[in-house]
């Protein structure tokens, strides 16, 4: 009798202890963390540049190629070579937008080069021994009036010889990843100066980004350049926002246009550069350029790449509660979405006590390497489960209770 009573009391005591321990763990113990799922990033409407299938053409913004069409091989670039001469010389003697630059004296060799090119029927601007031109004025003659003798004078002044200039040009081309570029002279009058349309578009973007060269190509000539009747900037399609860096034709290279363009978007603008080689006629070139500019006007936009409040993450608690994570504020930018940007979403390990506004993940845009990550914010808090759920779901709660012992100290 006493043994049976002892067993009964013991079992009852154990039952009371079990129930006494179970209830607190179930009712006030830690909750399991929610599961996190990453939603699909909304796709961005892509609007590429309208480029002709014939000839060769390309457009670029900075170092990014926006599009290319037609022939992809290196083609004769002739007079457009002088843009490269200007850039390579600017590597050694950079020129501010309003600066005249160093003096470039004219000697007998420069005069004889002028006479020889004049007799050969090339584009020239007169020079005479004893003249002194500034670097800016020499560039005005070379770029605005396509003066081959001035391009040669500039290269020899900066590098001492044609061989030294070409060596510097090759180093410059490698640094700028212009793999198709082949140069044989500074003036662009010899056969053998070659580049692909894509590389020529990148070269145009480099000219666009150089403050001194950009100013020369958009301003009237000055000083001795004006006295020797150097031309004013080319106004071809200027009413459409086009800036001409080079426009020319010869039987070897065909029609060549190297250009910049500016597309206004509200109070801001988007700038790009490009090249067109071997259009069939001047009329077809104008039609092609109008189509390109129309596609830019339709495609360029201003705003964030991803609208603030875009759902990107879903947090789901074991008891069925859900909270979304939405994108924080991304910076406004002016851009031409010729291809979908690479937007990656990273979710953080969420806690059961997540609150509205907590950062639950981040967004990164691959194309914007220097931009900070954009936070993903919880839209609300996860409500705690009711008592019946806690009492009827011991396994996830016991697991959370065990995990709490291995959690790092706050």
Structure in words:
The chain has a 6-stranded antiparallel beta sheet, with no helix packed on it. The protein folds into 2 domains: 2-44 and 306-406, no CATH class; 56-279, Beta-lactamase (3-Layer(aba) Sandwich). The protein starts with a helix and ends with a helix. It has 410 residues and is an alpha+beta fold. It has 12 helices and 17 strands.
Shape: elongated
Instruction: Please report the total strand number as a whole number.
Output: 17
Largest sheet: 6 strands, antiparallel
Strand content: 15-25%
The whole-angstrom Rg is 34 Å
The residue ranges in which pLDDT falls below 50 over 5 or more consecutive positions are: 4-19
Tell me the name of the CATH class of the largest domain.
Alpha Beta
Question: What's the domain count?
Answer: 2
What average pLDDT do the residues reach?
87
Physical arrangement of strands within the biggest beta sheet? 1-12-13-17-16-15
CATH architecture of the largest domain: 3-Layer(aba) Sandwich
Would you give the CATH topology of the largest domain? Beta-lactamase
Fraction of helical residues: 25-40%
| Number of contiguous helices | 12
Which sequence of SSEs, written as H and E, runs from N to C?
HEEEEHEHEHHHEHHHEEEHEEEEEEEHH
In CATH, the homologous superfamily of the largest domain goes by the name DD-peptidase/beta-lactamase superfamily
Distance N to C terminus:
55 Å
Q: Helices and strands: which structural class?
A: alpha+beta
């Amino acid at each position: 009798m006493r043994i049976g009573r002892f067993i009964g009391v013991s079992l009852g005591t154990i039952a009371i202890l079990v129930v006494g321990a179970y209830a607190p763990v179930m009712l006030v113990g830690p909750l399991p963390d929610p599961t996190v799922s990453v939603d699909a990033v909304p796709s961005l409407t892509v609007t590429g540049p309208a480029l002709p299938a014939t000839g060769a053409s390309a457009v670029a913004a900075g170092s990014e190629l926006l599009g290319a069409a037609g022939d992809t091989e290196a083609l004769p670039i002739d007079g457009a070579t002088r843009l490269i001469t200007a850039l390579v010389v600017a590597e050694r003697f950079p020129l501010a937008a309003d600066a005249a630059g160093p003096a470039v004296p004219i000697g007998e060799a420069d005069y004889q080069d002028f006479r020889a090119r004049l007799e050969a029927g090339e584009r020239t601007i007169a020079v005479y021994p004893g003249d002194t031109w500034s670097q800016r004025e020499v560039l005005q003659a070379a770029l605005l009036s396509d003066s081959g003798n001035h391009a040669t004078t500039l290269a020899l002044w900066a590098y001492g010889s044609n061989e030294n200039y070409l060596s510097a040009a090759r180093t410059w081309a490698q640094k700028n990843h212009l793999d198709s570029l082949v140069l044989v002279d500074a003036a662009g009058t010899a056969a053998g100066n070659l580049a692909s349309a894509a590389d020529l578009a990148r070269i145009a973007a480099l000219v666009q980004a150089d403050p001194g060269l950009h100013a020369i190509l958009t301003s009237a000539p000055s000083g001795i350049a004006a006295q020797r009747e150097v031309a004013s900037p080319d106004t071809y399609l200027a009413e459409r926002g086009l800036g001409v860096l080079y426009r020319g034709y010869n039987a070897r290279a065909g029609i060549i246009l190297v250009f910049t363009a500016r597309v206004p978007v509200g109070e801001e603008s988007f700038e790009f550069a490009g090249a067109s080689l071997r259009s069939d006629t001047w009329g077809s070139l104008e039609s092609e350029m109008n189509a390109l500019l129309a596609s830019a006007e339709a495609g360029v936009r201003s705003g964030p790449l991803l609208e603030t409040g875009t759902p990107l993450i879903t947090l789901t608690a074991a008891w069925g509660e859900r909270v979304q994570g939405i994108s924080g504020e991304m910076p406004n930018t002016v851009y031409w979405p010729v291809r979908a940007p690479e937007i990656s979403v990273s979710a953080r390990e969420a806690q059961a006590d997540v609150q509205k506004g907590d950062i639950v993940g981040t967004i990164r845009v691959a194309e914007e390497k220097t931009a900070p990550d954009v936070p993903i914010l919880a839209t609300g808090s996860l409500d705690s489960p009711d008592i019946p759920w806690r009492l009827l779901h011991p396994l996830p709660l016991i697991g959370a209770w065990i995990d709490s012992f291995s959690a790092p100290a706050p």
